[in-house]
């Protein structure tokens, strides 16, 4: 590095750390998957735990298709979903972990249902947790109704934990009336979930697309498989021998199949997920390559959250410095000949390159995973 370049970097770091610009050293830990050979469910649970991983969680149909592609010659795969509460016992819990003692709910879960509570017409009512609704958070003893954001229950939980304390919980009739009053006669999520099942890593997932011909009540089949290359869920006895994926990481990769400029992609990810994707470590790069390699998408270039300072010329992520990198030709593009936004190329060994920020491409978002709390 030249002396001039080093001096400019020192100036940038000084400005960022002195508060002239928002700057944090963030860590992504994108989800990464490790295939495992056939074993029973308990055996795979042990193997994954030894790797500091868990049997895979599905968050949507795209996850199900991704898992299937790792086992082309296998028709059945174990998933991390298992029944931990039977006949509705202890199946209802508040997001923030307080005891479920005050109960005016009419929900009674069965057949693998996952029901989340909302307030509608000033009454508690159960809905499928994947529905998009307004929601109410709390901060200390204050209740905050979020009307401008429509999210599923898990996304609402993540939002409340990020900006406030959690989704609102209700312990008595006085609190119930306060929440209703604050709700302005809107329909909104509260922090109550009803679910007999949970994922091994306790990931908060609203994906519960059962194969209707393979739902079993009672204790006989308390674990879940994915069959015949379909993302549908099927109940099974834990002694059967199937392969699986062990997974780790707390951030999901989302491929957005819409052509937008870099700034439009940035705003889309902020509004609908967490942020435009950042690749901060070698393991993150491996996770992106693994995901794109197993995802059907007719595109080569994808916007990522990589951009160049137009003043100093350094490449940064949206809120952190670039450390590990995979630049094409092993060298970051430099001004005055560089474009100022970054893409990753699927057809060029997943290398990074600069691109005109006004060009339109598909793009990669990342979404933080929320975890249930009991």
Structural write-up:
The chain is built from 7 helices and 21 strands. The chain is α+β, with helices and mostly antiparallel strands and 374 residues long. It folds into 3 domains: 13-28 and 251-368, Mannose-Binding Protein A, subunit A (Mannose-Binding Protein A, Chain A, Roll), CATH 3.10.100; 32-82 and 205-248, Mannose-Binding Protein A, subunit A (Mannose-Binding Protein A, Chain A), CATH 3.10.100.10; 92-195, no CATH class. The strands form 4 sheets. Strands 4, 5, 6, 7, 8, 9 and 10 form a 7-stranded mixed beta sheet that branches. Strands 15, 16, 17, 18, 19, 20 and 21 form a 7-stranded mixed beta sheet that branches. It has a 4-stranded antiparallel beta sheet with strand order 11-3-12-13. A hairpin with a 6-residue loop joins strand 17 (301-308) and strand 18. It is globular.
Helices and strands in order:
Layout: H1 3-17, E1 32-39, H2 41-50, E2 54-55, H3 61-69, E3 76-83, E4 92-94, E5 114-120, E6 123-128, E7 133-139, E8 142-151, H4 153-163, E9 166-167, H5 173-182, E10 188-195, E11 197-199, E12 223-227, E13 233-236, E14 242-248, E15 251-260, H6 262-272, E16 275-276, H7 282-293, E17 301-308, E18 315-317, E19 341-345, E20 352-355, E21 361-368
Parallel strand pairs: 7-10, 17-21
Antiparallel strand pairs: 1-14, 2-14, 3-11, 3-12, 4-10, 5-6, 5-10, 7-8, 7-9, 12-13, 15-21, 16-21, 17-18, 17-19, 19-20
């Amino acid at each position: 590095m030249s002396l001039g370049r080093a001096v400019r970097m020192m100036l940038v770091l000084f400005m960022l750390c002195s508060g002239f610009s928002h700057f944090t050293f963030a860590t992504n830990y994108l989800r990464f998957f490790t295939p495992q050979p056939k074993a029973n469910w308990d055996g795979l649970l042990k193997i994954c735990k030894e790797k500091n991983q868990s049997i895979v969680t599905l968050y949507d149909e795209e996850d199900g298709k991704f898992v299937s592609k790792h086992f082309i010659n296998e028709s059945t795969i174990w998933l991390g979903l298992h029944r931990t509460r039977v006949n509705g016992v202890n199946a209802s819990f508040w997001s923030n972990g307080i005891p479920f003692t005050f109960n005016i709910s009419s929900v009674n879960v069965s057949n693998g249902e996952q029901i989340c509570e909302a307030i509608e017409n000033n009454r508690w009512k159960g809905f499928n947790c994947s529905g998009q609704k307004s929601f109410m958070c709390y901060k200390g003893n204050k209740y905050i109704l979020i009307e401008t954001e429509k999210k599923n229950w898990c996304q609402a939980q993540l939002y409340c934990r990020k900006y406030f304390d959690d989704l609102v919980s209700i312990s008595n009739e006085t609190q119930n009336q306060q929440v209703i009053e604050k709700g302005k006669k809107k329909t909104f999520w509260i922090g109550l979930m009803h679910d007999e099942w949970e994922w091994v890593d306790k990931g908060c997932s609203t994906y519960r697309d059962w194969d209707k011909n393979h739902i079993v009540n009672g204790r006989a089949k308390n674990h879940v498989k994915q069959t015949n290359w379909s993302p549908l869920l099927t109940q099974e006895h834990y002694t059967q021998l199937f392969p699986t994926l062990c997974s780790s990481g707390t951030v999901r990769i989302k491929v957005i199949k819409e052509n937008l400029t870099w700034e439009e992609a940035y705003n889309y990810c902020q509004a609908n997920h967490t942020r435009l994707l950042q690749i901060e470590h070698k393991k993150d790069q491996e996770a992106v390559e693994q995901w794109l390699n197993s995802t059907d998408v007719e595109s080569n270039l994808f916007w990522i959250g990589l951009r160049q300072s137009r003043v100093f010329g350094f490449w940064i992520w949206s809120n952190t410095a670039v450390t590990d990198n995979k630049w094409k030709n092993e060298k970051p593009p430099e001004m005055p000949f560089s474009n100022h936004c970054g893409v990753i190329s699927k057809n060029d060994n997943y290398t990074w390159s600069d691109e005109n920020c006004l060009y339109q491409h598909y793009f990669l978002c990342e979404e933080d995973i929320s975890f249930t709390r009991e």
